[in-house]
Specification:
single chain, about 350 residues, alpha/beta, Aspartate Aminotransferase, domain 2, Aspartate Aminotransferase, domain 1, 2 domains, seven-stranded mixed β-sheet, three-stranded antiparallel β-sheet, 9 helices, 14 strands, about 35% helix, binds pyridoxal-5'-phosphate
């Protein structure tokens, strides 16, 4: 098989060894002579997978006592509503930072439950920076933000300082760097950006913060119903959870979040320094707010687009076309993308300069 340098923005690249193990479990799981896809989620073998996956999340992120880890369905897009239902009393107020499409969608869902104070936004410059210097209303129940803006290529380098509880959509940078879970009442993340395949969403929630809204929460949206049943209130998405577990095992074996943070810093430094050095390319976002996960850039001469597209495709690079709302290019450097793949892209950019500079 030819090696493809997979820069897909999501679903993301996964390590080859994870994909191989995952494929084996489809045919014969744990030497049961049964597929993982055809056994009970209540069986000892699957309950072990669920418990392993939950404890790997706790271990890798240093989740403190008093927090629960859940693997649910519906993607981060349902997470927008689940966050609001569980933390915002009907008609109450919440503070949201709007840094792009996903924050904007989160705001729309919260508005179904209560009032949203959009305390900061970077919409004025097509979300190319992270706003700072905002005030948080005293009567807001929580502050919500998106840690990494997958589409636009910006990332919060620090957790915003807040007197009120903080909720974060970490879909596209969870497990990419160290975080302090105690700073948050709720973290949620769709698996398919940096944790595993599509189909499950991880929730890390401070248990004592739940049950305070007075809302009549539908059972499937109520984090407490899922906690009571150890994340098996109903049939969980067994396969995405299994593959996420394998991927978290891969991360742990290689040195955990400390290790991957260093690798991710190296990858980002390598690509951004070429974007800044090479006169044929230009970064899209404010330098101080650049995402380590999704690097967005454009050609300084658009007439070279077709040629550049041919060059990177010929080098077996996949998935660097920018999102339609931004244009240009987006190189997503999730955990499983090796440094060598970034070097291949940088070499293509250097060669391109030699031909056209
Ligand atoms: C992709 C993405 C989402 C939407 O995730 P789904 O799982 O498709 O609902 C939400 N937030 C961020 C930051 C994302 O990158």
């Amino acid at each position: 098989m030819t090696k493809v340098h997979n820069y897909s923005a999501g679903p993301c690249i996964l390590p080859q060894e994870v994909l191989k193990k995952a494929s084996e479990a489809v045919v014969n799981f744990n030497d049961l002579n049964l597929s993982l896809l055809e056994i009970s989620h209540r069986s000892k073998d699957f309950v072990e997978v669920m418990e392993n996956a939950r404890s790997l999340v706790k271990e890798l992120l240093g989740v403190p006592e008093g927090y629960q880890v859940l693997f649910l369905q519906g993607g981060a897009s349902l997470g927008f509503l689940i966050a609001a239902y569980n933390f915002l009393p009907t008609g109450g107020k919440a503070a949201y930072i709007n840094t792009g499409t996903w924050s904007d969608n989160a705001i729309k869902e919260a508005q179904r439950i209560g009032e949203v104070a959009e305390i900061a936004s970077s919409k004025d410059k097509n979300y190319s920076y992270i706003p700072s210097g905002f005030g948080i209303p005293n009567d807001a129940k929580f502050l919500h933000y998106t840690s990494n803006n997958t589409i636009f290529g910006t990332q919060f380098k620090k957790t915003p300082i807040s007197r009120i509880p903080v909720i974060c959509d970490m879909s596209s940078d969870i497990f990419s760097k160290k975080i302090n879970v105690a700073d948050f009442d709720l973290i949620y993340a769709g698996a398919q950006k940096n944790m595993g395949p599509a189909g499950t969403t991880v929730y890390i929630v401070k248990e004592s913060a739940l049950g305070k809204t007075g809302n009549n929460i539908p059972a499937m949206l109520d984090l407490q119903s899922h906690i009571k049943k150890d994340s098996m209130f109903n049939t969980p998405p067994v396969y995405p959870i299994y593959v996420s577990m394998l991927n978290l095992q891969w991360l742990k074996k290689n040195g955990g979040v400390d290790w991957i943070e260093k690798v991710n810093n190296q990858k980002a430094a390598l690509l951004y320094s070429e974007i800044d050095r090479n006169p044929l390319f230009k970064g899209i976002t404010a330098k101080s707010d650049r995402s380590n996960m999704n690097a967005t850039f454009i050609l300084t001469d658009e007439s070279l687009t077709e040629e550049f597209n041919k060059d990177w495709a010929a080098a077996n690079i996949n998935g660097i076309k920018g999102h339609r709302s931004v244009g240009g290019y987006r190189a997503s450097m999730y955990n499983a993308l090796p440094l060598e793949s970034v070097q291949v892209l940088v070499d293509v950019m250097k060669e391109f300069e030699k031909k056209n500079g």
